[in-house]
Amino acid sequence: MKVAILSGSVYGTAEEVARHAAGLLNAAGFEAWHNPRATLADVQAFAPEAFLAVTSTTGMGELPDNLQPLYSSIRDQLPAAWRGLPGAVIGLGDASYGDTFCGGGEQMRELFGELGVREVLPMLRLDASESVTPEADAEPWLAELVTALRG
Ligand SMILES: Cc1cc2nc3c(=O)[nH]c(=O)nc-3n(C[C@H](O)[C@H](O)[C@H](O)COP(=O)(O)O)c2cc1C
User: Fold this and answer.
1) Could you read off the pLDDT of 99-142 as tens digits, one per residue?
2) N vs C: which end of the chain shows fewer Cβ within 10 Å?
3) Among candidate residues 36, 34, 40, 35, the one with its CA nearest the CA of residue 10
4) Nearest CA among 73, 48, 19 for reference residue 149
5) What pLDDT is recorded for position 82?
6) Where do the domains of the chain lie?
């Protein structure tokens, strides 16, 4: 199964988590693809069969600048071929931001909803105020994702 990993990151943490996820998914027998500067055409050329979004949050609950263009073009076009595909989101944030905690991840969940991508696992929220080991923290959730995508 081909899994497109869409990542948004300001300082590189989410990008590291995305890279780690790609390694684990590939080790589990999936074909994971991750390009932090992917365009809509790049994603469509990969012909994904599942999605994983990994994004941090900046500003007041906003998506990082490197994910904004892809987010906007997906939203404008809503590719019909992606309807019904399985997907899941890892949101990175900091709970001290209160209401906007993991707002970037929430935006990707909403986008998946508009696309008709099925959320197969509740969003993982990685809180920078609680932990400095986000890649390791994501591992149990990624193991659940592997099971969900196989099922
Ligand atoms: C200027 C700035 C604004 C932020 N705004 C939010 C926010 O609104 N909500 C949130 O949950 N986290 C917020 N964060 C926390 C980051 O999302 C968090 O530290 C994350 O781990 C950074 O990941 P990155 O290195 O991939 O950008 C903000 C951080 C900075 C520096």
Assistant:
1) 999 999 999 999 999 999 999 999 999 999 999 999 999 999 99
2) C
3) 36
4) 48
5) 98
6) 2-150
Q: Backbone dihedral region of 69: left (phi > 0), alpha (psi from -120 to 50 degrees) or beta?
A: alpha
DSSP designation for 62: B
Class in CATH terms, 2-150:
alpha beta
Residue 116 near ligand 1, beta carbon < 6 Å: no
Measure 119 CA to ligand 1 centroid, in angstroms.
23
- Give, for 146, the enclosing helix (H) or strand (E): helix 134-150
pLDDT tens, 37-79?
999 999 999 999 999 999 999 999 999 999 999 999 999 999 9
Task: Report d(CA 95, CA 105) in Å as an integer.
Answer: 13
